[in-house]
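Try this one yourself first.
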């Protein structure tokens, strides 16, 4: 990507550029350029591209798997579903200092973009595997994890330094 195409500030690409990027990679995956691997026991991922401004990941989701409620620290993000169906549960602020979880379904060909501060959990609740492409700008360096407490407030529980969309400690607990 030419420097003139980059955004200013801390995030080299803007959300619309990330959405276009994941749609392009999703089309390449659908066309056979990047064959996904399906592991029936856990999510599988591989990096498709990385440069100083963005990284792109291919992720497969066995049925009945999810991430935890998380953000992408200082990175913007976008995803495009290639096959199957994913559900995104995201924290939405209500304008009165509170908020709650809202849900959207993302089928093949659909996607989502994640601004800074976007807290979500992505789930494959179906019995069939799903495939998605994700991009982060700047490249992913950390993820923070959250819980909704008894009062209905969002609370950060931990932050993990990582350059992968599935930090190793989480993979260990998922097995």
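Now uncover the answer:
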């Amino acid at each position: 990507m030419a420097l003139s195409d980059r955004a200013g500030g801390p995030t080299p690409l803007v959300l619309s550029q990330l959405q276009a990027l994941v749609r392009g990679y999703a089309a390449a995956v659908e066309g056979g350029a990047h064959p996904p691997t399906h592991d029936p026991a856990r999510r599988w991922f591989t990096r498709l591209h990385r440069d100083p401004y963005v990284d792109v990941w291919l992720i497969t989701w066995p049925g009945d798997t999810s991430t935890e409620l998380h953000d992408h620290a200082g990175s913007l993000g976008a995803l495009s579903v290639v096959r199957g169906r994913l559900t995104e549960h995201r924290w939405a602020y209500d304008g009165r200092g509170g908020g709650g979880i809202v849900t959207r379904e993302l089928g093949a060909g659909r996607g989502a973009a994640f601004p800074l501060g976007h807290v979500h959990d992505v789930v494959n609740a179906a019995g069939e595997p799903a495939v998605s492409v994700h991009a982060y700008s700047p490249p992913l360096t950390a993820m923070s994890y959250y819980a909704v407490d008894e009062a209905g407030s969002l609370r950060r529980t931990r932050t993990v330094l990582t350059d992968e969309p599935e930090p190793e400690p989480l993979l260990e607990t998922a097995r």
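Discussion: The first strand starts at residue 44 and ends at 50. Confidence is low (pLDDT under 50) at residues 169-175.
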